[in-house]
Amino acid sequence: MAKRIKDPGIGKSSNKHAKRFINQDGSFNIKHVNRPSSLSESYNYLISISWTKFFLWVVLGYTLINSIFALIYTLFGISNIADPTGNFFRDFLKAFFFSAQTITTVGYGAMAPKGLLFGIISSFEALIGLLSFSFITGLLYGRFSKPRANIRFSNTIVLREHNEIYSIMFRLMSRSTNVMIRPKIEATLALSQEDKEGEYVNSFYKLKLERDSITYLPTTWTIVHPIDKLSPLAKFERKQLPELNGEILILVSYYDESFAQEVHQVHSYELKDVIQGQNFVSAFYYDDEGYTILDHNNLDKTINNTAHK
Fold first, then answer.
1. Residue 240 DSSP one-character state
2. Are 211 and 243 in contact (CB under 8 A)?
3. What Cα–Cα distance (Å) separates residue 46 from each residue in 32, 40, 41, 104?
4. Which of 73, 109, 272, 297 is the most buried (most CB within 10 A)?
5. What letter would DSSP give residue 91?
6. SS3 228
7. What is the bridge-based pairing of β-strands 274-276 and 157-162?
8. Is the pLDDT of residue 161 over 80?
9. Could you give the CA distance from residue 81 to residue 98 in angstroms, rounded to a whole number?
10. In angstroms, rounded to a whole number, what is the distance separating the alpha carbons of residues 139 and 47?
11. Alpha carbon distances (Å) from 209 to 38, 124, 170, 184, 228
12. Whole-angstrom Cα distance, residue 309 to residue 298?
């Protein structure tokens, strides 16, 4: 008989239309509302977003600061840094380019501030430039040095007979050439079901795995949960599994040599995505010289169980 476990932190309350707990990218599927924000959170945000968003923020901030100072130079008198053209837009562009040279401390020499006021403004802008580029340098280092797991999970999760017992199986591998040291995995089944009062609640079960840890992982690891009499899925027929509002929550930990520490990654599969009667295609093989060839494109590939036999 399968035993329920304590709430792993997700919450027992549920809903008929409740979505998955964990997205495919490993993020938790939660929308925050009325959350107070602070400036101190900007660092965590800027080292966590994608590289595309990060550089867009850098370009936006760079353009905004230069535009503000260019407007100040133009309104206070463009003649104090360059010959005026009589056209506001052209004078603004001259002031913008002067601001870009000042904030980066390039100073080509074609334009220079005249007078005490413009000297103070340009000196203050140079200070902002030094602080800004120091901040961006710190962010770049933080983004490269931030410990993060680099695991790729198969998009496919299958249900097939394994050692004469029907089992749920999925695969994982390292995205890089680094060998995962002492990887271990925990799998929890979350079932959202209607109780006697007509309310939906979550029940959690720890899934027994064929192997929950190995010494190292240079290729792929197929995770197997046998649906025996102790499995929480044993009371359901195989055809019922895709109809259940269930999700397999996964936590993988391993020692990463690049960061010299243990890293973690979460993932999940929904029971409605289980494919029956399929076998995974082998993701690695040996070449003529005896070397092991790992084909990353084969991680998700399956073959009909009958054809495999």
1. G
2. no
3. 18, 11, 9, 22
4. 73
5. H
6. coil
7. parallel
8. yes
9. 8
10. 6
11. 43, 62, 11, 11, 11
12. 19
What does the pLDDT look like over 107-133, one tens digit per residue?
787 888 888 898 899 999 999 999 999
Q: Is residue 21 a contact partner of residue 268, using CB atoms and an 8 Å limit?
A: yes
Taking only the tens place, the pLDDT of each residue in 36-64 is: 777 777 888 888 888 999 999 999 999 99
Q: How confident is the model at residue 93 (pLDDT cuts 50, 70, 90)?
A: very high
Rounded-to-5 percentages of helix, strand, coil across the chain:
35, 30, 35
User: What's the pLDDT score for residue 308?
Assistant: 46
The pLDDT value given to residue 306: 57
Please state at what angle helix 51-77 crosses helix 88-103, rounded to 10 degrees.
Answer: 120
223 touches 169 (CB < 8 A): yes
Strands 157-162 and 180-194: unpaired
Cα–Cα distance measured from residue 1 to residue 164, given in angstroms and rounded to the nearest whole number: 20
pTM, rounded to two decimals: 0.77
pLDDT value, residue 309:
46
Rg (CA), the chain: 29
Give exposure, 182-196, as e/b (b: 16+ Cβ within 10 Å): ebebbbbbbbbeeee
List, in sequence order, every residue forming a beta bridge with 204; answer none if it has no partner: 190
